[in-house]
Structures are given as C-alpha cells and as structure tokens.
Amino acid sequence: MRAYDRLKPYMEKAMAIKTALTLFEWDNETLAPQEAGELTASVIGLLSGEYLEAAAGEEVEQLLARCEAEDAALSSEAERAIVREMKEELERVRDIPKEEYQEFARLTARSASIWAKAREEQNFAVFAPALASIIRYQKKFAGYRAQKGEALYDVMLEDYEKGFTMESLDRFFGLIKTHLVPFLQKIKTEGRRIDDSFLTGDYPEYKQEKLARFLAEYVGFDFKRGVLAVSAHPFTTNLHNKDVRITTHYTKRVDSSLFSVIHEAGHGIYEMGIRNDLTLTPVGQGASMGMHESQSRFFENMIGRSEFFWMPIYEKLRGLFPDELGEIPLEAFTDAVNKVQPGLIRTEADELTYSLHVLIRYEIEKLLIEEDMDVREIPRVWADKYEEYLGVRPSHSGEGELQDIHWSQGSFGYFPSYALGSAFAAQIYYHMRENMDFDGLLARGELGVIREYLRENIHQYGRLKTSRQILKDTTGEDFNPLYYIRYLKEKYGKIYRVKN
Amino acid sequence: MRAYDRLKPYMEKAMAIKTALTLFEWDNETLAPQEAGELTASVIGLLSGEYLEAAAGEEVEQLLARCEAEDAALSSEAERAIVREMKEELERVRDIPKEEYQEFARLTARSASIWAKAREEQNFAVFAPALASIIRYQKKFAGYRAQKGEALYDVMLEDYEKGFTMESLDRFFGLIKTHLVPFLQKIKTEGRRIDDSFLTGDYPEYKQEKLARFLAEYVGFDFKRGVLAVSAHPFTTNLHNKDVRITTHYTKRVDSSLFSVIHEAGHGIYEMGIRNDLTLTPVGQGASMGMHESQSRFFENMIGRSEFFWMPIYEKLRGLFPDELGEIPLEAFTDAVNKVQPGLIRTEADELTYSLHVLIRYEIEKLLIEEDMDVREIPRVWADKYEEYLGVRPSHSGEGELQDIHWSQGSFGYFPSYALGSAFAAQIYYHMRENMDFDGLLARGELGVIREYLRENIHQYGRLKTSRQILKDTTGEDFNPLYYIRYLKEKYGKIYRVKN
What we know:
The structure is a homodimer. By secondary structure, chain A is mainly α.
C-alpha cells in the first residue's frame, strides 16, 4: 500500500471536521441565537482538537515524510499538491500544544459575539480584553513556527499570501502612497463634483433582496449550489464546491448591498469553479486570500462598477425603484457608484481610497505584532491614521476600529491581501482586455465568456498553483503592481476629467 | 483516576460530533442548496464513523464496564445516568460494522432530498429504492442487537419508547379502535356542523410569520436561546439547551402554521428546560420520543386549542387579519380549529382522528419489518387502510405515503410515540387540572405557571428518568391510556354536543 493511500483517511477526516467547523462558523454569523455562544464554543473547541490530531498527529507526520520520499509513487499533480498542502498545515500547527489550540478555537468562537456586542455599543473596551488574548495566542503560535528567526508578522502574512513579507508589502504600499495620495488630492481639488445623494433613501429591504438575488445570479452565482443570507458583516464561505454561501446586509444605501453581493458572488464563483477532484481536499480552496480577493474585487469593480455592465440591466433596476431612480440616467448612476469620497468604512470605500483603508490596518497590525503596542492604543492610533491618510476621523469605535470582524477571528495578516487582490485583479484585467472585447461582452450581457476565462485560468486550480504562478501563467508576467496604479489613474482620471 | 473521569473525554467527543451532525441535519432541512447533498453526505458519513468510534470504541467499552463495577465511585445521579445512557448507546451500535454504519449515515443524509423530490413529483417510485435500502439496514442493525431472539420491530420500538413492545402497543391501539372508531362515527352522524371555511384564505405569509413568532414567544419559547425557520416538514432540533431550533411552513390554511408553531415550541420548551448540568451529555435530551410528543401535543392541544388560551390574544389575531377574521367570534374560531374531519394528512388532523393516522403507520411498519412486505406494496396498503379507518383515499403519493419525512431518516418505530405522547399528555392534563386552575391561568395569560409545572416535573430531568417514571412521579399512577379516551370523548362530546 502506498503511503499516500494510508495518508488519505487522515486527510478526509481532517477535511470532514474542518467542514463541520465551517458550518458552525457560518451558523454563528448568520443564525445562532444570542446565548448559544458559550456552549457551542465548547463543542467547537473539542472538534478543533480532533482536527489537530487528524492534521498533525504523529502517524500523519510519518506518512507525509514517506510520501515525500516516495514522490514517484504519487500518481497525479493533485496528489502531490495535497501532500504539499498537508505538510504545510502540519508545520503550521504541529508545535502548538493541543490545549492551546483548543483554547484558541473556543476563544475565537466566543469572540464573534463579543465583537458584535462591542460594535453595537460602540465601545472598544468591551472587545479589548478578548482582542488582547487573541493577539497573545497569535504571537505565541507564530513563535512556534518562526524557527529560522523570521519576524512574527511575516509568519502570519505567509498564511494568507505566500511569498509576501513586510519588506515586499512596505514596497507595495509605498508605491500606493507615492502615486495615489497626490492623485487623490488632485481629484479633490481639480475634479468635477459627482452627485450620489439618490443612492441613499428609502429602498425597501424586500426589493433590495430581490435585486441581490437577481445580481448574484446574473453574474453567475449558481443558486442550485449556493445560498444567500444576511449577516452583520458580508462574507463568503463554502462547505465544498457544491455548497457555497454568501451573505449581505441591507442598509439605507442601495449600493452597499448591491456591490457587496457582486463582491461576495465573485468569491463564491471562485469556489464553485474549483475542480471536482480537488474539492474537500486541502487543495480545494482559492490559491490564496489575495487571489480570492482579486476575484471578488474583479467582479465588484471591473465588472460591477462598469457602465457597460449596467447597460442591459439598468432598466430593470430602475423598474424596481421607480421613485428613487426613475429620473436618474445610466451615466449619472455609474458615476455615483464610482464617486471618490474619503470615508470611514472600508467596505464602502471607492476603489481609489480603498487601499488606504487597508494600509492603515496593515500599519496597525505591524505595531501590534512587531512593536507590542497595547491594544488600548488602537482607537487613538486608528483615528490619527484615518486623519492623516484620509482626512476623516471616526466619532466612535463602531465606525472606527470595530468595523471589521477579522481580528475577532484571529485573522492577523489577512488585510494586506485585500489590497494585493485589487492589484492582482488590475493585472488580470489589462491582460483580459487584450484578449477579448471586455466592454462589449458586458454590454451584451455575455458574462459567461468572462467567467469561463477566469475559471479556466484561475478558479479550477484551487491551490494547485500559487497566486504568483497563476499570474505568470495567465498574464505572462510576474506580479506587477503598476497595473493597479495605472488602472486607478485611468479610471478615475476619466470619471473626474483630470489628467494624471 | 476514576474510570468515569477517563470515560468523560470520550463522552464529550461523541457529543461534540453528534452536535455537529445535528447542525448538518438542521442545515440540510432548512437551507442547504439543492446539489450539495452528495458531497455533504460524504462528510456526514466520515463524521458518523468518528462518532461510532467515540461512542463504542474498545476503550469506551472497557471503561464503561469499570464504571459499572465501581458504581460507588460515581458521585451523582447525573454521572450514573450518563454511564447508563452510554452503555445503552454502546449496545445499540457496538455490533454494527463501521463501514455499514457510515454507509447508512450517507444513505439517510442523501435520502432527505430524494424523499423531497419524490414528494414534490408525487411519485413514490422515486423514493422506493432508497426506502428499501433503509429498511434493509434497519433490519440488519436491529438484528445485531436482537440477541435474545426479540422481534426486530420490538428492538426498533425500544429506541423511541422504552418498555413498549408490539404486544403493549397492540393493546393500546386496540383500546383506541374500540372506543374511538364508533365515537367518531357518532360525531359524524349526530354531531352539529362546524364551519371552518374562514381558516383557508389569503393569509399573507409575512403576517403568518409575525403571528408565528408572537405565539412561540407567548407560550414561552425564548428567542435568546432559540431560532424559528422554515422547512418542508416542521420539526424541532437542538444543539444544547441554549440553542433550540424550531421550524414551520406557511400555507393557505392559517391554522396549519399556527398550531405547528405551538407544537414545535412545546418541543423546544422541553429542550430549553433541561438542566444545565445535563445538556451536552447523553442524558441531556427528552426522556423519550413519547414524552417529547406529550409536551408538544400538550402545548398544541391542551393549551393551544383551548378557547381559554385565545381569550387574551384573540383580538390581536383578529387585528392582524381583519378581512379574514374580523367577523368571526372567538367561539366560532375555537370550534373551527377543533373541527373533526377525517382527512389524509397526519400533521393537520384533529385530535380525534390523529391516533388513527398513527395506527395506520404502525400497522404498515409492522408489515414492512415483521412480514417483509415489499416497499412497492406501500401505496396500495396505505390507501386501503386510510379508506378502512378514515373513509378517505389519497389521490396521489404526496398526500399519502410520502407525506412524512421519518422513514427517509431511518426512523422506524417512531410513529407510535405520537399516539403514546398524546395519551401521556392527557394523563398529565387531568392531574394538572386537579392541582391548578388550568382554564383560569390560560384565560389570564399566565402560562408561566403551567410551564413551570412542566419544567419542574418533566423537562428538567432530561433522561434521568424514563417516561414511565416521570408519569408515576408526576401523576401518582402508571401509564393509563383511559385518560386519553376520556379526554377525547369529553372534549369532542362537548364541542359536538353529543353524549359519549
């Protein structure tokens, strides 16, 4: 019997438990009753312990070593990738004592509702102790792995985007600051004024929901294999490639849920496109968080915020909201949904200011992890940085450091992938435009061609390739952030009628 | 270290996996997308295998034997009950080969959607092959346990209601037939006519939902610890005593969801009332299926269908549906929701014909398990029995043998507990009436007193006591089905103004 065949049951067990944990997380964010937290967290803690044993038990370690030694016995690229991913996961968790691993799982399971409560009460102090514990664990866990003396934050970044460290991200964000901060200034002083007041109003929730379902389906989210629900913070998750779940939330701003849904549908379409032989294996998920965000941001921005996209469907939208949009021509609508407006909320930011929101989080994470900044400093530092980069200052924690769920889940090092993903998307976008009549396809509602291109080049592979490999194979060159700068300058230069 | 303390981690692991399986089942019935079934079933199969190992592994068996030998070392009634329940579960599953156990779990996970499809298409042939496999497995599993030569169906019955066998159930149903079939005839010929036409109409779904939430809360379902959702077949489940979930469905008949919700809330209140030290242990669930049904039927019928119950809230109901109920006086409404109408659908049956629906299922299950009747015979036998006992004949499988989900889940032996539960409820009801001003409490909306009585005498114990013990301790006598006969004759004699 091949070592791989003996390894497989462990892999399947680990994936089954991971799938159950994913379902608990989904349920927790979308449905579970208020007081369930503590007891459900104990269940999650126990299951996490089981996961740890299945993913990093002694026998798994031995079998993985044998698989690597018997490389020739691996019969496919998929098997090789599964062994590689399992090895990486083993290295991520092997040195974490089971007790600590379970305690951390319980802690993050409980933290979601603590964060939600703090956010509702606009009181950071409610969340601070849990956050301090989470950071303590995250540093400890990164410490177990940083055996070659890597910086702790670099270890964390590696989980979300392989091959990107503080050094490369500093360069990337430096480029963004150099180019976009003055360009943003120019738009504010020289650009024309855009009216977006009509996007806010009495848009009935049931109609927004109808629109959300229509748009998700229109961009290619398959409801036979997917679900749309409501949560405080929109997100996407999946049990496998035939059960993909997205959420949104409905507010007074119609564009908020509208682009949220297209964004999450982009994530969802990625997961639905992963090959059947990879799903429910460690290779059966997006190549990286950055590549995942590249797809959601591609759908949201390159597709969803294009005037060509709306041409075939704007009448339908107007028909749904005749009072609000009846008098608004298409161009005014697409201008409004692209209005540049330095604001406080990341998920509602325009594309130009978006990466500055991410930059702020990146800088604060560095302070927390590398400089041991006290969590109690976060509100002040957050507000100061928003003032510095965006010229706005939150009036309370709810629109400041409590707006994102990520830290409550222990996701440190995740945020940079939002900006990287946007940059990946721009690089892919320019390449696609060379190969197809992108605007024409949108204008004719032929999104299937675009989706098929993405599936063929990106989605199907899961983690068979890294994001850098995918970029190389798809666009013919390495990651090049200048496409992102160019994209933003061209797009907003045109909309605001300023030279860049 | 006590054997019990070494056993405990196995118990906790088994409960954690069982809780995950419960969540998958909930999700499957309420939300999961159509095409998820096959892959999710594979995950469920794997988790079931883990459950089997945690509940019936070799070490668990040894530890349980040691716990029984060291009975004095068990420090509480709860510990003793946990050992007893674990032992029983061990005996239930020990001899089932892991492969078969997992295959059966996958089969039932898939069967839910096969059943739903068959039901929608009103085509029993779609479901028949899956049902035949399920029955094959169930007989095989019962066979592993029937080592003292018990009848297979008796083994199955034992899972739902300890101490009830075909012999006692034949007696019980015999009593029902003897008393109720002629009484039903008398009502049809001598009773007055009751109009219930106004219950069917254009009752908007969003208002029905509002009413459902109001009623659930009014009878005591705590939404901080519970959830209400929609599913094809209303049901209740729970992860623990702080996460209890009920469902309903909305139709053209307003009383359908209305009493469904009160019924499921009754189940839910039972689960919410179980002691904190018992939840998430094998003792932390209702004493038996019969006792569970006694509580749901008690809430639905003794509470919910009483005119006193509606006195404080009927105006609210009328206010919600002024067009439909504005002209209907309270008494006409409560008469209508108690109208006797031999029909095809069990869950919509009045109390008097209800147990005849159950009897039919009981008789068919006996034929399938004990007489090896071919599943393809079911539609004909079903229709013949409905004609014989209720004078109606289904025109298609959807209103016949495909109406209930239970068989698709492998639940053979479950149905009798519906009738037993109704009989338990009647016995408890008469005892309560001797101890409190039951009608007065309902009329004053003081349901808390009734609920507290049930919690104190029944709910809190979980499985610490059997249903027979609970009946004895609560009512001072053994199970006595004559209360049930008396209850139905008194109630319907009064409503229909016939002597019994």
